[in-house]
Structure of WxcM-like protein:
Amino acid sequence: MDIEIITIPKIEDIRGNIAVIENDVIPFKVQRVYYLYDIPSTASRGGHSHIEQLEFLIALSGSFDVVLHDGNETKTVTLNKPDKGLLIKENTWRELENFSSGSVCLVLASDVFKEEDYIRDFDEFLANSK
């Protein structure tokens, strides 16, 4: 599966830590930043794949599960540390679920929003992944 957990460099301090994403921490130039918050624990987000766009997800607060599918296998990754991010490459289906109270999911994307880059139907995704 074409995913990777990346450790975000941090500066530790007794007053609180700082995590820094710059230079070559993630393998793409960030073109869009958005975040998900106030998500009910029973809700699911995502439910799509991208044809070309890469995304880097970070649990800034709380935790949530990212259920991934590459057309052959399914894998669940729990994000719950603000200094670890999940790199999701193209052609990977993703669903976000099991949000804890107060969780915030930050997404750094390699491109601006383009509807034509999304595959939102799972059967279509499976047909294209073969």
In short: The mean pLDDT is 94. The radius of gyration is 15 Å.
